[in-house]
Amino acid sequence: MKAATFSLLALMMFLQYFIWGSWYATMGTYMAENLHSTGTQIGAAYGALAIATMISPFFVGMVADRFFAAQNIMGFLHLGGAALLFLASRITANGPFYWVILSYSLLYMPTIALSNSVAFNQMADPGRQFPWVRVFGTVGWIISGLVIGFLRLEKTEAIFHLAAAVSVGLGLISFALPDTPPRAKAGMTASQALGTDAFVLFKSRPYTIFFIAAILVCIPLSFYFSFGNPFLTEMGMDKPAARMILGQVSEGVFILAIPFLFNSIGVKNMILLGMTAWLLRYIFFAYGNADTNLWMLYAGIILHGVCYDFFFVTGYMYTEKKAGEKIKNAAQGLFTFATYGVGMFIGTAFSGFIVDAYRTGENTHEWLRIWYVPAYIAIGVFFYFLLFFKEKRVIQQAA
Length: 399
Prior knowledge:
Blueprint: H1 3-23, H2 27-35, H3 39-67, H4 70-90, H5 94-120, H6 126-150, H7 158-174, H8 190-194, H9 205-235, H10 240-254, H11 258-264, H12 266-287, H13 294-302, H14 304-323, H15 328-357, H16 367-388
Helix pairs in contact: 1-5, 1-6, 1-7, 2-3, 2-9, 3-5, 3-15, 4-5, 4-7, 6-10, 9-15, 9-16, 10-14, 12-13, 12-14, 12-16, 14-15
């Protein structure tokens, strides 16, 4: 790959995830401060992204890949998204705000797959080259958190203005990206877009057990994504958005250990370690504060690397090995649909309900009791997985 092409793809990934990081982590705090939103309303707004995740495979597989060059449709989606992000900053009522965020999510989520397609299309060896491009996405998310945190923008409409401005930039840059023509003139059926070819995996009892656990563990995950920043803000942590990027740094560090541990301790032990990290995180959050137990808040944030990598990254690797070459793409699509779609939709709705149940004032909550809930769920999933998941040391393909 030429240096100029690599630089352009790296910039694309940086901006792609800078946009997401600019508004996603702090939207709950913004809604509570400016829209006086309840936990249920905040959860619903985060659930909009889960709905978009379930719909975007159909759009990418049945429309974008069939009729349009990936870089061009990506440009139009980001330009349209910029307008919706700016509109979100002008809305003062929860109902209209939800529909704008849902509309924006429906435009944004397909660009993740499209940006990956643009990158893969330029690579002779994606397995070796893609991580070096994708890491700039993580850097983009980290930088957005630092900017928002140190400029103290969490509670202001500037989070949407920043995301909109960068979205305009990426939208224009997209038209200059390497050409990525339509991949399949024949198109893709609805069942293929959903990944139904991978249903054969459910003939394997271990994979079925894992699949159910993956959906369930998205419930505690939703608590962190939807209410982590509002919680840290309410606790009085200084520049919480900037502190939360330690979770992304942790994610980048721990992912390096996965290939070694996957082969040495096995998929079951890795996933159990990830579930243990979920439990520890919420215990730390339950008893942490911005005074004597500030270290607990930092510990809960830094555990994000183990929580995410040891379950979800390991889960993607396990799914690929279980599926085999023939249906691995369908299997990964099905796993994403179930976790970031179905699981996160359930989790965001449930977490919002729990936060409202322990609300003590307009912007005050009994966080000890709130964090107990995802901790108990993590314990339940841990023992379910420990008792019922039995995979052979050498993973046998289900297809």
